[in-house]
Amino acid sequence: MGVTKTDIFSREDNLLARFAKALGHPARIAILRLLVQRQACICGDIVDEIPLAQSTISQHLKELKAAGLIKGEIEGAKVCYCIDETAWEVAKAALGTFLDSNTDCGANCC
Amino acid sequence: MGVTKTDIFSREDNLLARFAKALGHPARIAILRLLVQRQACICGDIVDEIPLAQSTISQHLKELKAAGLIKGEIEGAKVCYCIDETAWEVAKAALGTFLDSNTDCGANCC
DNA sequence: TCGTTTCATCGCAAAGATACGATTAATTAT
DNA sequence: ATAATTAATCGTATCTTTGCGATGAAACGA
Q: Does the CB of A110 sit below 7 A from strand C?
């Protein structure tokens, strides 16, 4: 298969998983970190900073855009990427709430 | 390929990506939510609650354990799973700090 | 003891993810 | 006009993930 059965899970769980999946690769974390540090980034700058092929970086950017975490603006021949604050806030809230759950399992086990 | 080049990224970025990847499937989110709600869970209870095959659930549990997010205690023929608070706190701190980054890209773009 | 329950593991099939080079289209520089 | 830069896309190879049924091993119950 290789296909996730999204239909059997809640919308919230699917949302959380989609954001987490987008963050689930070190290259994408590194890209987002660059965008945060420099406030915005020309695609070529990212290619220079991360030792992966240009086509590979472009693919990761595409996934981050599909997840809504970034947006790109065409500036002539170049493309300027930056964090999409709206979706970023949604992701922060969703993951934050989830990770803030009470994990204490009492004295009954473990 | 299909193989991630972990060696070219920082330890922190790989750590973040590993946690996020573990959270990057709705079944694993659902499992963690069950463990949080019930404080602990017998494996069979999870299989009853989530409409996936027992072997599939077992595999997701294995991945969550590999990521350190849960731990299992053998109780006779059954196995009791619960959140591993130590790693959970690490994940919460790492993801929390990352997502709390200032995402304002000023007026220069986008 | 023998069957049952419980869960992990194996083997398999289908689909997705990762990475690269080559190509393409658009803009910019000469 | 021509060449160079920039970034997306295509095609391809390989590895990983997802999912299931079947099998195994361990503990439990009758």
A: no
